[in-house]
Structures are given as structure tokens and as C-alpha cells.
Specification:
heterodimer; A: 191 residues; alpha+beta; seven-stranded mixed β-sheet; 7 strands; globular; B: 279 residues; 9 helices
């Protein structure tokens, strides 16, 4: 009886370990996930530029906001701070986009620096992986009437959630890694 | 040391002008090397300290890679991980620390999952209608399938004066034969005295974190915002250092070592007590 129990426990442990090992992310897999995450960040950057542009029609901006919102996990927030204040102002993603759209500039130009940094992926208690991608954005706004020019460079630290999911294709179960964006920390830089 | 910093920062600036994968493409702005040189995340601080990524930060090195944790790479990175503009760390202490960390016989590394590092998070809460500063001391712990940050201690001024246990003659007490009277004199402790903490053992230490959580549950405390973050490291045996974020023009920016102390016997406990109690 005792031997049977040991055998059963041994088998159980080896199965658990195998399952655990399966969930580890290899360097090659990490690279593929990084690329996927960067694609999503690229999409977000594109959407932000469209939403911020004065040439974008209201209905089109709303449609793009919907697309942009789909990139994010539910409840994601933007935490914004400026050089003058360390305090973080919190906005829901949709609210942030709406504020961006409502800016009172006649010309808005949003561009990105050719540099980004991707962190390691860390596993959280629920088994999902979390990482952070850092990018830099330059914002330029011009008001024709007042001739005012506003320019800032912000650092955006974007949370990414990585999860293994399953789908059925032609009766077969296919596993894949899905990436969702999470909270974004926006910090004004001195650049 | 300053020379090494300049050479390495310049090297990063040059390397970063080589386009990699990412947001690049038409319309992007070329970084002049400042963002590449910046230690952009604490994760990058770990990787640079350990020599686990390429100079431009685009390639992560893993065990088995030829450059993984090589002393030359680490030496270059270490030189740019100090705040070289405002901190008062002397070149001698920096050099001693660098030599210790890069020792041929027993090199030292930082480990994200290992104990011995803490986050100090400055926040603002609304306490009974008034804005108050609260400092949270946080640490990483293993939990189920992964890891999580947890609050280990809270430093909150209004609580400091809440428990002022008197000492000496001014301290009230329950006399040693109270038990013979069925502790009827507890009335004195709980009704007459304004300092019930007088009747606690010598070892009594108020648990501010529990009081803090209680006040939050009573809706007396409402979180407002985070105003600052820094990190304390004790992972390098015999050394303590503090890491702060520097947001300023130039190449010496991001998460950098702002304070470095070689520890003597008992120093670690003293610094930890200072961090946790802030007395």
C-alpha cells in the first residue's frame, strides 16, 4: 500500500513538473512574444497619432478609439505625471483617448523615437506572465490663432500580459500565446 | 571611473544608432543616444548590473551565450549605473564596490526573486478628509504560480503619536496582585486611562500596518496618488545601496545608484530599522 502511494505521488509530481516546465518561456519563445507585443504597441502608437490628429473626423476617431481599446485588458489605466509634479493623474484608457482628441490645437503631430526597451517576463500568481515595454513619444501642438506652440517628450511604460490560450481549428486544439496591453505609465521627460 | 563612464556612454550612443526591430520606420525620431544610455527600467538596472544584455539593450543574454555576465561587459555597465551628477559617493568607494562585485573568485549578482531588496513608495492618502503623506515599504514574495509585490510596512505620521507608551514614573500599571481581585481594576486601564498602551508588555510594538488596513476598511483612508519610488538593496554581501530614478537632461539618467555604503557589523540592521521605522 505504502509502495503504491509513493509510486502514485512520484507519478503525480513528474506530471506536475512536466506541466510546469511546459509553461516556462524559452528565449526563442520570448523573442516571438516580444515581437507580437511590439506589434500591439505599434498599433497603439498608430491609433494615438490618428486620435490626436485634428484632420481625423469625429466618427473615425471614435472608431479608432474602439480599436485601440480592444488592445487593452479590461480596466487598464493611464497614469500621467509631468516634470513639475510627481503626482500621478489616473485616467481610464478611453477617457485618456477622449482627452487627447479634445485638445485645443489646430495642428497636432505625434511621433515616436526609434528606441524601445522590453523587460523580462515575470510570472504572476495566477500563472499569466507580465512584462513592460518602454517607448518614447514626442508631442507637438500648434494653435494658429494664438501662435502658441507646445512640445513635450514622454516616456511610456506599457504593461503587457502574456497568456497561453487554446482555440479549436478544424477539430484540432491549437495552443497560442496571446498578448494584451495593461496599465500605461506616462512620464514627461526633460529631453 | 569617470573616463570609463564617458567611454561607455558614448559607445551606447553610437551603437544605438543602428536600427533594430521596433517602432522604427518613416516618421520616427532618431535618438541621439540619450534614451539608449538611460537605464529605462529597474529590469534594465538588474540586467546591466549582471551583464545580461547587449550594450544597446536590444538583445537579452542567457546562460550559454558567450557574453553572458562577462566581467568586461559588467564593468562597462557598472560605470554608468551610478548617479554621477548629484550623489556624494566617492570614486574610491565606487571602485572598491566595483572590484568587490566583479571579483574573479566570487563575483556578485543581483537576483530579482531573492530576498534583500525593497521598494520605498511615497504616496498620498486622504485621511479623515485631510491629505496625508504615507510611505509604503514593499517587497517581492512568491505566491502560487508566480510572484507578487506586498506591503511589508507602512509609515504614517498620524499613527506615530497614536501609541505613546509612557515610561518611568508617569507610566500607569496594574498592580501585581490584581488577579486576586479578579482584575476588577481593569476599569482603570480601559475607562480612566487615556493611554491604555501603558498596560502592555515591554516587548509591545504597535502594528501600524494592521491599523492602516483597519482605517482603510472603515473608509477613513482613501488612496489618492503615488508621488515617488526608490529601491533599497542589501543583496550584495557587506554593501547597501539605494537606487533612484533621475529624470534630467543628459546621458546619466534613469534608475541609478544614488547612495552606496560599505556595511560594518550591525550596520545592515541599523539601516533596515531606519527604512522601516523612519525614526
Amino acid at each position: 500500500m505504502k509502495n503504491k502511494l509513493i509510486l502514485f505521488l512520484g507519478l503525480f509530481l513528474s506530471v506536475s513538473l512536466a506541466a510546469f516546465a511546459q509553461d516556462n518561456i524559452s528565449p526563442a519563445r520570448k523573442q516571438a512574444i516580444d515581437s507580437l507585443a511590439l506589434e500591439k504597441v505599434k498599433d497603439l502608437s498608430k491609433y494615438i497619432a490618428i486620435i490626436g490628429s485634428k484632420e481625423t473626423q469625429f466618427s473615425e476617431a471614435n472608431r479608432v478609439m474602439d480599436r485601440a481599446e480592444e488592445l487593452f485588458a479590461p480596466g487598464a489605466e493611464m497614469g500621467v505625471s509631468s516634470i513639475n509634479t510627481n503626482e500621478i493623474a489616473y485616467y481610464k484608457v478611453r477617457n485618456y483617448f477622449e482627452r487627447l482628441m479634445a485638445l485645443n490645437y489646430d495642428r497636432v503631430n505625434i511621433t515616436w523615437y526609434d528606441i524601445q526597451y522590453i523587460s523580462d517576463l515575470e510570472r504572476q500568481p495566477d500563472g499569466r506572465y507580465v512584462g513592460v515595454i518602454t517607448i518614447y513619444q514626442r508631442f507637438e501642438g500648434t494653435s494658429i490663432e494664438t501662435g502658441m506652440n507646445y512640445r513635450d517628450t514622454t516616456k511610456k511604460d506599457i504593461t503587457i500580459y502574456v497568456e497561453k490560450k487554446q482555440t479549436q481549428i478544424a477539430g484540432r486544439t491549437i495552443e497560442f500565446w496571446d498578448v494584451m496591453l495593461g496599465d500605461v505609465r506616462v512620464t514627461e521627460t526633460s529631453a | 571611473m569617470r573616463k570609463t563612464f564617458l567611454i561607455f556612454a558614448f559607445f551606447i550612443a553610437i551603437i544605438s544608432s543602428v536600427p533594430g526591430q521596433g517602432l522604427g520606420g518613416p516618421g520616427t525620431i532618431k535618438d541621439d543616444g540619450r534614451f539608449a544610455a538611460s537605464t529605462k527600467q529597474l529590469n534594465q538596472f538588474f540586467r546591466r548590473f549582471n551583464g545580461e544584455e547587449s550594450v544597446d539593450g536590444n538583445t537579452r543574454f542567457y546562460p550559454g551565450d558567450s557574453l553572458y555576465q562577462t566581467p568586461a561587459l559588467r564593468k562597462g555597465f557598472l560605470s554608468i549605473l551610478f548617479d554621477n551628477q548629484t550623489s556624494s559617493i566617492t570614486p574610491e568607494v565606487k571602485q572598491k564596490f566595483t572590484q568587490f562585485v566583479l571579483s574573479d573568485v566570487y563575483p556578485h549578482y543581483l537576483n530579482f526573486h531573492r530576498e534583500g531588496w525593497y521598494a520605498e513608495v511615497d504616496t498620498e492618502f486622504i485621511f479623515k478628509g485631510k491629505r496625508e503623506k504615507v510611505t509604503l515599504i514593499m517587497k517581492i514574495q512568491a505566491e502560487r504560480l508566480g510572484f507578487e509585490w506586498v506591503i511589508d510596512q507602512v509609515i504614517f505620521e498620524p499613527f506615530k503619536n497614536l501609541f505613546n507608551k509612557p515610561v518611568g514614573e508617569s507610566k500607569d500599571f496594574l498592580h501585581p496582585l490584581s488577579h486576586e481581585l479578579g482584575f476588577m481594576n481593569l476599569r482603570r486601564a480601559f475607562q480612566d486611562s487615556k493611554l491604555p498602551e501603558s498596560f502592555t508588555p515591554n516587548s509591545y510594538k504597535p502594528d501600524y500596518l494592521s491599523v492602516f488596513l483597519y482605517e482603510m476598511k472603515q473608509n477613513n483612508l482613501r488612496f489618492d496618488t503615488v508621488t515617488g519610488v526608490k529601491f533599497h538593496f542589501f543583496q550584495i554581501n557587506g554593501w547597501y545601496f539605494e537606487v533612484n530614478q533621475f529624470n534630467r537632461p543628459g546621458f546619466n539618467t534613469g534608475w541609478l545608484i544614488s547612495n552606496l555604503v560599505q556595511l560594518g557589523p550591525g550596520d545592515k540592521e541599523t539601516i533596515l530599522k531606519y527604512i522601516y521605522d523612519q525614526d
